[in-house]
UniProtKB/TrEMBL annotation, chain A:
Stored SUPFAM superfamilies: Periplasmic binding protein-like II
Name of the protein this chain belongs to: Peptide/nickel transport system substrate-binding protein
Protein's GO biological process: peptide transport
Domain spans labelled Solute-binding protein family: 90-447
Keywords: Signal, Transport
Automatic annotation (TrEMBL), chain B:
Keywords recorded for this protein, A-Z: Cell membrane, Membrane, Transmembrane, Transmembrane helix, Transport
Annotated GO CC locations: plasma membrane
Tree of life domain: Bacteria
Organism encoding this protein: Streptosporangium subroseum
Chief localization: membrane
UniProt lineage: Bacteria, Bacillati, Actinomycetota, Actinomycetes, Streptosporangiales
Family stated for the protein in its record: Belongs to the binding-protein-dependent transport system permease family.
Protein name: Peptide/nickel transport system permease protein
Chain spans, region Disordered: 1-27
Stored Gene3D superfamilies: MetI-like (1.10.3720.10)
Stretches of the chain forming a coiled coil according to its record: none
Record bears the keyword Calcium: no
Length: 535, 368
């Protein structure tokens, strides 16, 4: 039997009601203030909020290699050379006022610009440059390969020479990488920086920057947000527009709501579907990214007798419906004619891209001697590239190849697991992507036999001597025009006989508030915060 | 509550009086103290077990942390790979790695995170307060609302309010937290524009000076009332979303526990003696009903902690859930171990508190 008294129940009922009411009131007032602060007021007008899905490990330029880290590095540090806007075909001076590559491509001479200063007001010197570049190379952090075999020397107070053992025409394209940002060596050394593996400066450089860039690091957290503040002593002609830039780690779905409501001004990771219905007051920039998604067919017969058959790769190349993949990837995506993305020197023209030819694919399969083969396709299950998941791509490829007579068993795995098989060259068929380490075609020599990606496809050195020789010649070629042609020829050969089937370059969709100006997508650092202005 | 105050309360509650001989031989310790010591020792053993299980499971994952942490070109350079392995102690045999980790834990060193390159303890000190603030407010809302709703539903059994609360609690239990989080964010932030966006405070504000790491408390301590208002505003929606499941759970369990006690003879006797309904409810009914409620509250706190991972992701809440997710996806062993230890530790503490509360509320438990 229940107690039928109203008093206790009535009081108890009041409690949650009052609580909920109080919470709602507080929420309303806070929500209101947040909106106001974003739309008006002096302080708020100078704060820029960028939402992105963090891929960030450090703010130490010598160890930075993740997309979010490169955005921060680009804002806080300056490099000897840089690129203007999104044009990566022509390096231009930055901290160096001029540069000259010797005729044999082995020596790069740079003249240091006068008047450049660090955030503490001290001048940028040749000693700072030598220390910074030596440090990157010798402390064996992730980006140290950028300067592998490069000797850095100060010729005089304003001249630095970078000497390579072999011709290194890519060096002017490598130097703009924010990982090669110049540190204030005095400050860095005071906090444990050394040009060897014993370097201890990372913790300091994760809390305060020591660069000459237009912004400095106010706070840094690898999982939640990074706050940049304007460098009050910035030496360059274009002063930073925003007093404060907050870069937040936000999931794509939340990014969309934040920017639509005005809580953020830039959203970097929206997929093609997500940008489809954006409000008219927002700017949507869709650019083909520099990430090339490709298939690999393992050439090692001990891994697969089917995929190592040269005609099998041809059957796949002709069997894939590239238009269908582009439809999946959304507007702004383009087909990749070769492994080198469209914006880089030496990229194949769009008309050189493979086209679907089901009958040709069936004929190639017949020539391979494999009747109705079954192969496993491995790919990272949870990885997305520019908002595009690998799962639907793999399913579409499976359906395409079924029409040709190839049965594809999908074998997705978490990226950390899938990477192991990929790295060890154990995948029968693999679906992966490659983003440029630096915007120079020489980065793609890794796809040749015996090289990094070639080995992942079981393509050992000596497997295709003609192609390997062409690779060596191409690597040593000097001069833009000659290099362009050499890389076009090399890719044509690679497409004809190699184990790689370049598929697409998904679109990088960047949404900005109407008030934001100057945004350009960059294949290396995604966005240059210093370029962003306000209407 | 001090242990000495328990016997008189026990007698008041009409439970069995303690026999004088029972405390004598075990080193002059009261049953409650012995009970506590036993529980703490068990908790310590469990903590070691947690570190072992976390370590083994993390190492069983088929994947190489090097692949997860280095860039593609860097992976091709054996010198960089070797340097990275040595830096993170991965060049040592697994048993040695575990023993070193255990030694570190005892010395208060959880190792260096491979993703943040900072001591894991520093990372946790930064992320745990954010989650505690969120989970703490959520559990507070849950306890107050869940128990109140459960009592109301029991007292008004089979009336409209009872039916309504039962339906609401069912919804709270059934709706997936991540969906609710997305919907709450979409409706209240985007459509109705009455709640603030993601994060802990407005992005144009600076966090309050660090005292506890809880923004609401730190901002109040420093007198930054605009930051306080922003922190409370940002906290409410995710906390309510997190709380909904536990509110539903507690409502249902409180209702059934109260209904069961209401049917007991001593409640009838109390009513027959003419005691006021309020006294009967608070002293006789609620106290007896508390044991199952506390059990559920303890379990609910655990599920609430696991729920924070998705809620933190959707609300961009910089808590331990986001840290755990990132650590797991990059096979950051020290960080995963650190998070495992903290979450396991919280579970152990909650279980310990629940066990102790059992003993305090029901003397039969500590006498067993």
């Amino acid at each position: 039997m229940a107690i039928r008294s109203r008093r206790p129940g009535a009081k108890a009922a009041l409690l949650p009601v009052l609580l909920t009411g109080a919470l709602a009131l507080a929420a309303c007032s806070s929500g209101g203030s947040s909106t106001t602060s974003q739309s008006g007021g002096t302080a708020a007008a100078k704060t820029l909020v960028i939402d992105t899905s963090f891929d960030l490990k450090t703010a130490d330029p010598g160890r930075t290699y993740e997309p979010t880290g490169l955005i921060i590095g680009k804002a806080a540090y300056e490099t000897l050379l840089t690129f203007e806007g999104s044009d990566v075909t022509k390096p231009v001076p930055a901290l160096a006022e001029s540069f000259d590559l010797s005729g044999d491509g082995k020596t790069l001479t740079l003249k240091l610009r006068q008047g450049a200063t660090f955030a503490d007001g001290s001048p940028v010197t040749a000693d700072d440059v030598v220390f910074s570049l030596d440090r990157v190379r010798d402390m064996k952090g992730t980006p140290s390969f950028l300067l592998d075999g490069v000797e850095v020397a100060k010729t005089d107070a304003n001249t630095i020479t970078l000497t390579s053992k072999n011709a290194n025409p890519a060096l002017p394209y490598i130097l703009p990488n924010p990982a090669l940002g110049i540190l204030n060596s005095k400050v860095a050394k005071e906090h444990g920086a050394t040009a060897d593996t014993g370097d201890k400066a990372e913790q300091y450089l994760n809390s305060a920057s020591a660069g000459s860039g237009p912004y400095t690091i106010e706070s840094f957290n690898v999982s939640s947000q990074v706050v940049l503040k304007a460098n009050a002593k910035y030496w360059g002609p274009a002063k930073p527009v925003y007093d404060k830039v907050v870069i937040r780690n936000v999931e794509a779905a939340t990014q969309k709501l934040n920017i639509s409501r005005g809580d953020s001004q830039v959203a970097l990771n929206l997929s093609g579907d997500q940008v489809a219905g954006m409000p008219a007051n927002l700017q949507v920039k869709k650019t083909a990214s520099a990430n090339v998604i490709f298939l690999l067919a393992n050439q090692d017969p001990s891994v697969s007798k089917v995929t190592s058959n040269p005609k099998f790769a041809e059957a796949i190349r002709k069997g894939v419906d590239y238009d269908g993949l582009l439809e999946l990837a959304g507007e702004g995506s383009v087909q990749a004619p070769g492994v080198i993305p469209s914006m880089l020197l030496g990229a194949l023209p769009p008309e050189a891209a493979a086209k679907r030819d089901v009958e040709g694919a069936k004929a190639a399969l017949k020539e391979s001697g494999e009747a109705s083969p079954t192969v496993k396709l491995e790919y990272p299950s949870e990885l997305t590239v520019n908002g595009l998941s690998f799962q639907p791509l793999a399913e579409r490829i499976q359906a395409n190849l079924k029409e040709v007579g190839i049965t594809v068993e999908l074998t997705p795995a978490p990226v950390t697991t899938a990477l192991d098989n990929y790295r060890n060259g154990k995948e029968e068929l693999g679906l992966w992507y490659w983003g440029p380490d630096y915007p120079d075609p020489s980065d793609y020599l890794a796809f040749l036999p015996g090289k990094l990606v070639g080995l992942r496809a079981g393509w050992k050195a000596g497997s295709d001597k003609e192609l390997e020789a062409a690779g060596d010649t191409t690597a040593a070629t000097i001069g833009d025009e000659a290099r362009k042609q050499a890389y076009v020829d090399l890719q044509t050969k690679l497409n004809a006989s190699g184990p790689f089937i370049p598929l697409i370059q998904p679109s990088q969709n960047i949404v900005t508030a109407a008030s934001v100006t100057g945004l350009e997508y960059h294949p290396v650092w995604t966005v240059d915060v210093a370029d962003l202005g306000a209407k | 509550m001090s242990p000495t105050s328990v016997p008189s309360k026990d007698l008041k509650a009409g439970t069995a009086p303690r026999k004088p001989g029972r405390t004598g031989r075990a080193g002059h310790r009261s049953p409650l103290v012995r009970f506590l010591v036993r529980r703490v020792l068990t908790a310590l053993l469990l903590a070691v077990g947690i570190t072992l299980v976390t370590f083994v499971l993390t190492n069983l994952v088929p994947g190489d942390p090097v692949s997860a942490n280095l860039g593609q070109q860097a992976l091709g350079d054996p010198a960089i790979v070797a340097q990275w392995r040595a830096e993170h102690g991965l060049d040592k045999p697994l048993p040695e790695q575990y023993l070193l980790h255990l030694k570190g834990v005892v010395q208060g060193d959880l190792g260096m995170s491979q993703q943040s390159h900072r001591p894991v303890l520093d990372d946790l000190a930064e992320f745990v307060p954010a989650t505690l603030e969120l989970a703490g407010v959520a559990i507070l809302i849950s306890l107050v609302s869940g128990v109140a709703f459960g009592v109301i539903a029991a007292l008004r059994r089979d009336r409209l309010s009872d039916h309504l609360l039962r339906v609401l609690s069912l919804i709270g239990i059934s709706v997936p937290t991540f969906w609710l989080a997305l919907m709450a964010f979409y409706v209240f932030f985007y459509r109705l524009q009455i709640t603030p966006g993601s994060g802990r405070i407005d992005p144009s504000m600076s966090p309050p000076p660090h005292v506890t790491g809880l923004y609401t408390i730190d901002s109040a301590l420093s007198g930054q009332w605009d930051v306080f208002s922003s922190a409370v505003g940002h906290l409410l929606t995710p906390a309510l979303v997190l709380a909904l499941y536990t509110i539903g759970l507690l409502t249902r369990f409180t209702r059934s526990a109260v209904l069961e006690v209401l049917g007991q003879d001593y409640v009838r006797a109390a009513r027959a003696k003419g005691l006021p309904p309020r006294v009967i409810l608070l002293r006789y009914v609620l106290r007896s009903a508390l044991v199952p409620i506390i059990t559920v509250a303890g379990l609910a706190f655990g599920s609430l902690l696991s729920g924070t991972v998705l809620v933190e992701a959707i609300f961009a809440w910089p808590g331990v859930g986001q840290y755990a997710y990132k650590s797991a996806t990059t096979l950051d062993l020290p960080a995963v171990m650190g998070v495992g230890l903290v979450v396991g530790g919280v579970y152990l503490v909650i279980n310990l508190i629940v066990d102790v509360l059992y003993g305090v509320i029901d003397p039969r438990v500590r006498l067993q």
